[in-house]
Design brief:
alpha+beta; 41% helix
């Protein structure tokens, strides 16, 4: 569906203890213009941890890269 609209999606898998930083590093290495990350309805603890991922990602993305959070 995305390719039909001229958008190339590049799934990225990385292993490590700081997912926000890993995603930002991958975005920088790939030179992407937008990062799309999903959010789900989970427990308060999961939301707290995921919120930290979002904050870390937002702080570490290149300034010209957009962050889209889909829920």
């Amino acid at each position: 569906e995305m390719e039909a609209k001229g958008i190339t999606a590049v799934p990225v898998w990385r292993l490590g203890d700081n997912p926000g930083k890993l995603i930002a590093d991958a975005a920088r290495e790939l030179g992407v213009s937008t990062v799309l990350i999903g959010a789900t309805k989970r427990s308060a603890l999961t939301n707290l941890l995921r919120g930290d991922v979002f904050r870390t990602l937002a702080r570490n993305l290149p300034h010209d890269c957009h962050l889209v959070i889909s829920g």
